[in-house]
Write a structure and sequence with these properties.
This protein is α+β, with helices and mostly antiparallel strands and 240 residues long. The protein is 32% helix and 27% strand. It contains 6 helices and 10 strands, in the order H-E-H-H-E-E-H-E-E-H-E-E-E-E-E-H. It has helices spanning 2-5, 20-34, 39-59, 110-117, 158-171, 219-234; strands spanning 9-13, 71-77, 80-87, 122-128, 136-143, 178-182, 185-191, 194-199, 202-207, 210-215. The N and C termini lie far apart (38 Å). 40% of the residues are buried.
């Protein structure tokens, strides 16, 4: 629980076989149960993560020799919790929204179930793994429809906030980050067109023509957003 409160990501390596769904279900149940979340919400989260892990097992087949493996993530997002299943197969995309399944078919209902139980708060995007050498891939994530009370255990000093973001980006293989600071502000330049400003205990992510604000305890959200944008930019035509 302390890792979530400190704005960190809790990550598990998932088994590379059909037991991955059961492992994910048990891990999420233990985590959310420890937060005293209502049993009904815990069971819905277990169903969602089981479907996401099963989807990885059935569709994200890892080519021989590919580093890394499937991972289960959980991190704080405001007063909620986001869970995700990562696979190192970025070039096999999933639909941004579920296709209505044939009710007579046994398979194909996973994303529709995830969409319904998360109340539409889910998605899939390019990213990098948390474990085993920051391998490029994608994550299927969802937000648990619940509010949790966690203490705030993150630094409020602007330079410390920026340094924590920079260090976690570098740990995910995002190179070239630059940290600069001035009076009551600090900035991490992630890549062209993407900067993370730290001020007054909050993160201000500036990209293109918009700015997104996140609270200090949502550091994991900020880092994941930056990794996503970095990967999307790196994979543009003409980029390596």
């Amino acid at each position: 629980m302390r890792d979530l409160a400190a704005g960190e990501v809790v990550a598990w390596a998932l088994p590379g076989d059909r037991t991955c769904a059961g492992f994910a279900r048990s891990a999420v149940g233990d985590l959310l149960g420890g937060l005293r979340i209502p049993l009904e919400i815990v069971r819905d989260a277990q169903t969602m993560v089981s479907e996401a892990a099963t989807n990885a097992y059935e569709h994200a087949h890892i080519p021989l020799g590919t580093p890394g493996g499937w991972e289960l993530w959980a991190f704080r997002a405001g007063r909620g919790v986001v869970c995700g299943v990562f696979d190192p197969v970025p070039d096999k995309p999933l639909p941004a929204r579920p296709v209505r399944p044939d009710p007579l078919l046994e398979h194909g209902r996973g994303l529709a179930i995830l969409h319904e139980l998360s109340r539409g708060a889910w998605g899939v995007h390019r990213t990098r793994g948390q474990l085993g050498g920051h391998v490029p891939g994608k994550v299927v994530w969802f937000r648990c429809p619940v509010t949790v009370d966690l203490p705030v255990l993150v630094p409020r000093d602007e330079v410390e906030m920026a340094r924590a973001v920079r260090d976690r980006l570098r740990a995910r293989g995002v190179e070239g980050t630059i940290l600069a600071s001035c009076s009551r502000m600090a900035c991490v330049s992630v890549c062209r067109g993407l900067d993370v400003w730290c001020r007054d205990g909050r993160f201000f992510v500036r990209e293109a023509a918009r700015s997104i604000v996140w609270t200090g305890e949502e550091r994991a959200v900020v880092v994941e957003h930056a990794v996503r944008r970095y990967e999307e930019t790196r994979c543009l035509p003409g980029r390596s």
